[in-house]
Fold this protein.
Amino acid sequence: MDTKEIQRLLDYIAKSPLAEVSIETEGLKVSVKKHGEAAPSVHVVHTPAPALAPVAAVAAAAPAAPAPVADNLYTVKSPMIGTFYLAPGPDKGNYVEVGSSIEPGKTVCMIEAMKLFNEIDAEVSGKIVKILVDNATPVEFDQPLFLVEKA
């Protein structure tokens, strides 16, 4: 199953009353779950054929919650694999900078996955103390993106 077929599946699920679809073929397993009006989440796993590489997760289904780093520092992690962007466009200002105050629901970055742009919102209130990823670089699922000093 290639990217175009997965995108067609996503479009179909978004328009249909189905809440969940799982497809398994030789070498690939795709699960799509729709959560209310939100865009469907996708989990794709390449299953190894004999003597091939181990299973690799390609997308995540749920947003990652910040994890405690130190007493007052939290790590905002990537909820999916994709390309990390600090701004909504090349000629736009960054969502956040070091020193920016954030609160739950405020967009802190965007991650592009399969030509879909996903805004990543803050889960905690506080101040950005470090941006751990360069703009327009690939990120992995659960990769630390920001350090936040909790308010």
